[in-house]
Specification:
Shape: globular
CATH topology of the largest domain: Rossmann fold
Strand order of the largest sheet: 2-1-3-4
Number of domains: 2
Number of strands: 6
Bound molecules: iron/sulfur cluster
Length: about 290
């Protein structure tokens, strides 16, 4: 008789640490939700989480909750409750399981961390860059919690960006009762960059937040990269970040402060075949 081979499973060290981080994250939001000592924003994937964090919000992601509902197998029982409300079985199951979870008052946070319910939002912020469902999903919660819903519909699959695209975003921001100024700028040109900063200061009188988000890289193999492509990548993704921050800091320091957010990329850490040539300027932010 052959002896049954025992499978030896090794615990991954990071699993425990990840559990600790997640517990801390959810407990902090639970506390804020109960005491109101900090504001909680709900944010969609590809939403402006960095902005919200810079503003001091704790940020909660309902799509992650949807993933937890799936991985704990709670979703199957909860989805029909959202379907009964009129949400089609054909739409995103993260949405329907999350809404079902709210309707039933059940969450995997209870078993995992002893938390009774998801944190109550003070504001809901969406971006439809990835999918249109998120706006309806958040609009439902906005009505339930009676809190503001903010967000923009970003144009998708558009090829070249025209002035109409930019103006349509500005109009959406103005519809939120905010001011917007569109200044198309080639960030690799330092004189254009300074003109943009001057225009913003002239219109708003001060600059409180700068988000360095622009990046460019050729999508060719490393052996094919030209010197021109290399220079263009560094100019957009690294040089512009420094000089734009410098120009804005010259306004922020005399006014008493401000926030500069540099958006990085996981492509600065790992290599993918299609972008193997990326010179990885993002780690340069840490220089
Ligand atoms: S399909 Fe849309 S709503 Fe669902 S998880 Fe993806 S981005 Fe979020």
């Amino acid at each position: 008789m052959t002896e049954e081979k025992k499978v030896v499973r090794k615990n991954i060290m990071s699993t425990r640490e990840m559990g600790r981080i997640m517990a801390e994250y959810f407990h902090e939001m639970d506390q804020a939700s109960k005491t109101g000592d900090k504001k909680v924003a709900w944010c969609t994937s590809v939403g402006p989480a960095e902005l919200l964090l810079a503003m001091g919000f704790l940020v909660y992601y309902p799509e992650n909750h949807g993933a937890m509902l799936g991985s704990t197998r709670m979703a199957t029982d909860l989805i029909p409750h959202a379907n009964a409300l009129g949400y089609s079985p054909d739409i995103c199951s993260y949405l329907t399981s999350d809404i079902g979870s709210f309707l039933k008052g059940e969450t995997p946070l209870t078993k995992a961390f002893g938390i009774e319910s998801v944190p109550k939002p003070d504001v809901l912020v969406f971006n439809t860059n990835q999918c249109r469902d998120v706006k309806d999903w958040f609009a439902w919660y906005s009505r339930k919690f009676n809190v503001p819903l903010l967000g923009v519909h970003t144009p998708r699959e558009i090829g070249e960006i025209t002035d109409d695209h930019l103006q349509s975003i500005a109009k959406e921001i103005e519809a939120l009762d905010r001011s917007a100024l569109v200044v198309p700028t080639d960030l690799t040109d330092l004189s254009q960059l300074q003109k943009m900063v001057d225009q913003v200061q002239a219109k708003f009188g001060r600059i409180d937040i700068l988000i360095n988000n622009a990046a460019w890289t050729p999508t060719v193999e490393a052996l094919e990269v030209t010197e021109e492509q290399w220079d263009q990548t560094i100019a957009t993704s690294l040089k512009a970040v420094f000089f734009l921050s410098q120009a804005v800091a010259r306004i922020m320091i005399p006014q008493g402060g401000g926030k500069i957010i540099n958006m990085g990329s996981t492509l600065g850490e790992v290599s993918l075949p299609a972008v193997r040539s990326m010179p990885r300027p993002k780690p340069g932010f840490t220089i």
